[in-house]
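Help needed: design a sequence for this.
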């Protein structure tokens, strides 16, 4: 009798426990609420949504890009987008025929299981890396869940400014599960993983291309598990119009100013004055460019190298102006080799056109030692002709210097072009 009593008590206890574990009936009269309560009954949002825990949950995503920006000063690539996610939750299924043919319901992300997709290369590693915020998701009767959370990502992207302002940058988003292994969550990137149809144009950058690569994520620390991630790489190009107007054009103007200075005669005071002004313009340009760009890394911008070299060339232009000015104003007799060089140059028609444009034909004949029917008997005239060799020699060096500068600037400009 005692055993029967104990057995009866145990049956009553189990029946009461089973009744407590069952879901209470919904008091609402709407079918939608009854369906939602039934679906969420005994649902655990912390458990991965598979019946067999050995099966991986496939999570597909697409990035609907809305806006992007790139800050070279902070090396930050910013993206505003909608992240379209869908996966199958085997615990959220029902028969539409049992619920007035309702095929979709809408649940908040905190009510259901969501993948912990995160950004690995955030600019601020102290921020929460998870991408899914609190929003409503659509759940289909067959368990397919669709969530489209709006996201903002600031990721690290170290710029290569060597071709500034005609530079291109490659910036990467690395997305993966924060805690789950690849054997638990399989990240699937759609073929057209990035959609730019609704992209708001950026006033400084444009997207040239984008590519997607999935990494298996095999590491030496965990050879038996994988931690996959998806890399989305954007190739962006700077819209260089305003930058060219504010930086490139002034450099070209400084180059032209240097050539104008060198086209003047070294003995002219105007050339000396313009040389000082030219150096000041170059120095100001270098300071302005250096102020605008972050001077970090191994890849120095070519425009800074160009401006620096142009400044040095303007300094050399002043130095050689003073040297040529001193040579051309000498009154002593020149060495024989200088007279021989001058005589050889002006013995041909191109040399006369180059060096003797300011002299008479008689002085030219006297300088090259040719007799043209006129006998030079005045010693003062002979001395003047000999001292003119200094002036002609200085003028020759100045012309050679001018040609060298043109060739040097041409090489510099070609190397700077994108």
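Sure. Designed sequence:
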């Amino acid at each position: 009798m005692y055993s029967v009593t104990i057995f009866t008590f145990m049956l009553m206890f189990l029946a009461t426990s089973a009744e407590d574990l069952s879901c209470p009936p919904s008091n609402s009269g709407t079918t939608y609420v009854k369906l939602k309560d039934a679906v969420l009954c005994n649902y655990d949002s912390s458990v991965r949504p598979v019946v067999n825990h050995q099966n991986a949950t496939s999570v597909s995503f697409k990035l609907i890009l809305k806006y992007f920006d790139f800050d070279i000063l902070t090396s930050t690539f910013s993206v505003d987008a909608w992240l379209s996610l869908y996966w199958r939750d085997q615990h959220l299924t029902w028969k539409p025929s049992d619920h007035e043919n309702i095929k979709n319901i809408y649940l908040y992300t905190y009510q259901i299981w969501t993948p912990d997709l995160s950004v690995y290369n955030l600019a601020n590693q102290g921020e929460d890396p998870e991408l899914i915020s609190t929003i409503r998701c659509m759940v289909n009767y067959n368990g397919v869940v669709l969530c489209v959370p709006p996201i903002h990502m600031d990721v690290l992207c170290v710029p290569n400014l060597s071709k500034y302002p005609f530079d291109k940058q490659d910036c990467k988003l690395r997305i993966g599960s924060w805690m789950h292994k690849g054997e638990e969550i399989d990240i699937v990137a759609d073929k057209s993983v990035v959609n730019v149809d609704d992209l708001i144009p950026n006033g400084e950058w444009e997207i040239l291309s984008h590519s997607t690569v999935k990494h298996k994520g095999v590491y030496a620390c965990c050879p038996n598990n994988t931690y996959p991630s998806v890399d989305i790489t954007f190739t962006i190009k700077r819209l260089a119009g305003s930058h060219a107007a504010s930086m490139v054009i002034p450099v070209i103007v400084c180059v032209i100013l240097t050539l104008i200075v060198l086209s003047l005669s070294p003995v002219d005071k105007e050339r000396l004055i313009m040389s000082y002004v030219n150096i000041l313009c170059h120095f100001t340009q270098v300071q302005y460019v250096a102020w605008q760009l972050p001077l970090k890394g191994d890849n120095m911008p070519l425009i800074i190298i160009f401006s620096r070299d142009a400044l040095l060339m303007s300094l050399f232009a002043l130095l050689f102006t003073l040297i040529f000015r001193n040579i051309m104003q000498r009154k002593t007799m020149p060495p024989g080799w200088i007279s021989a060089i001058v005589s050889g140059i002006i013995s041909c028609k191109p040399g006369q056109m180059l060096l003797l444009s300011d002299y008479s034909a008689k002085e030219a004949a006297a300088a090259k030692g040719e007799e043209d029917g006129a006998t030079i008997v005045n010693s003062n005239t002979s001395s003047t002709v000999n001292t003119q060799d200094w002036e002609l020699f200085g003028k020759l060096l100045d012309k050679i210097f001018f040609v060298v500068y043109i060739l040097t600037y041409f090489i510099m400009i070609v190397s700077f072009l994108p």
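Confidence is low (pLDDT under 50) at residues 4-9, 13-21, 360-368, 370-381.
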